């Protein structure tokens, strides 16, 4: 642990002073070093994703938990549910589809499908959900859609069977790179914080466009490459302490493969009427546990990090405790956003 008078978290060459007093990041100043490493294949490895990183909802819940302290409070799931319902009210096929089509076929039993295995519908049973939540995870968006708009037909899809276990049915265990859904058959498609897990995120965007009906609504969310930069600084300071060197690997940055600042441009090839919705804010946390749990939630990729993962987590916890003793809270700048668009008619 450093004994300097500066912030206990430590500063990297990209840091901008006391994170408690200077929560605002400088836009565009950061490019991820990690994105260029060969290890990035691990961020898209289906066996790691389904068998470890998202084997259940634990790691995802640890990341979602930080937003409890976000100011201003954001409600991305509420925004999506309201916009999806409004869109379906305007779309003739959206309004009539749930009533005209038969109930969706039993799409998949997550318990019956191995990790990464695609279990599509039985022949002759074309799934025709109005809303398809791709990479649904623990169902944050699917649940809200069901709760706020029970009149809508919503299907959740994920590569991980286990994470879908408690998600409202119907669910589909499949790969977003090859959606087992007919062309133009979905009215609203979501890909929330998941495109960065695809080997080819742009091909994944093409796949979203393929399944969406003309005029259909797409919603995609991700993080800016400077999102939560204070966590990067904390991680690197701890890694420097542990390794005893000044040059240490950067923390995992999944979203650098599909960062918010590039998202609208990357959607433009397939979608129009693009709209960026800011979901950012300042997270001020008075206790260490949620921050440490967030850092530890990347354990599935510990082998790729180039540091002794557990030791760095422990050291980060010590730095954090010291910081909280001195300043009372730890400030994290959240730079998250959502892009919505329409498939041209
Ligand atoms: C960061 S979580 C986001 C979960 C949810 N959309 C949310 O925003 O709360 C990413 C999810 O995408 C899923 N995923 C990753 N790669 C996938 C793929 N190729 N096909 C389908 N789902 C995938 C993961 O299993 C995980 O549940």
Question: Could you spell the SSE succession in H and E letters?
Answer: HHEHHEHEEEHEHHEEHHEE
User: Could you say what the CATH architecture is?
Assistant: 3-Layer(aba) Sandwich
Q: What is the strand tally? A: 10
Number of helices: 10
| Amino-to-carboxy terminus distance | 59 Å
What's the CATH topology name?
A: Rossmann fold
> Helix fraction?
25-40%
| CATH class descriptor | Alpha Beta
Which percent range describes the beta-strand content?
A: 15-25%
User: Which oligomerization state do the chains in this entry correspond to?
Assistant: single chain
- CATH homologous superfamily annotation: Vaccinia Virus protein VP39
Structural class: alpha/beta
Largest sheet: 7 strands, mixed
Q: In which order are the strands of the major sheet placed?
A: 4-3-2-5-6-10-7
Rounded to an integer, what's the Rg over CA atoms? 21 Å
> Which cofactor or ligand species appear?
S-adenosylmethionine
Return the domain count: 1
Mean pLDDT: 83
Q: Uncertain segments of ≥5 residues (pLDDT<50)?
A: 1-8, 10-38, 94-128
